Amino acid sequence: MSLGPMQLWQHVLKILSNELNNDMSFNTFLKPARLVSIEQDTAIVDVPNNFTKSVIEKRYLNLIKDILSSVLKKNISVKLNINPQGFDSETVPADTVIVDDVPEVKSVLDDTAPSLNQKYTFDTFVVGNSNRFAHAASQAVAQTPAKAYNPFFIYGGVGLGKTHLMHAIGHYILGQNPLCKVMYISSERFTNELINSIRDDKNVEFRNKYRTIDVLLIDDIQFIAGKERTQEEFFHTFNALHDANKQIVISSDRPPKEI
Q: What CATH code is assigned to 122-252?
């Protein structure tokens, strides 16, 4: 079949997501990248900044080369090009490449972890008297995961910045250590994935997904109140991560005694 660069790159991302099990760094660093063209057996891939380029070069470049070479059935090299402006353009290169039909790849769990919001960083957080301690504690957690406060529980009303701080922690940790496996997820999504894993007999995959990460950021934990099966699974996940000295961050609009 004939694919343009955009369609080819979406296929590569689909394979990568399956290989990497959609971890947080995949969503943060690979999804924003774009295949611009294939020129003389070299894939030109645009990335937004030097940091993203460095992470992809260290972690994913060989895998991307292997996937492209396999799909196109010839040796392909990859050149990463920093082009911040290119990510606002909707133009698509006209050149195409020919690839054989390949089966669709599905991830182990249909529901995947959402990516970190690029706008939610410590730099964009507005510090006030009501959240100054939460901000300082969040920075301490980000700077020394699993050492300062673990688990770290953020409690406050709706709209006071709990989710912003959780994303900021994730961004900071990945910035310091791109190899760190960080996962942000809402407790509602956690519950839905648990239900799906039970229905599809994928309990092992579910547990492996959540018990082999380095930092778990779970938002709105109050959602699991009254859900005994979800509470039990979260309890075991919590213990597994805590025993392995992994960082756990939890947010809620209710105090712990009311959950």
A: 3.40.50.300
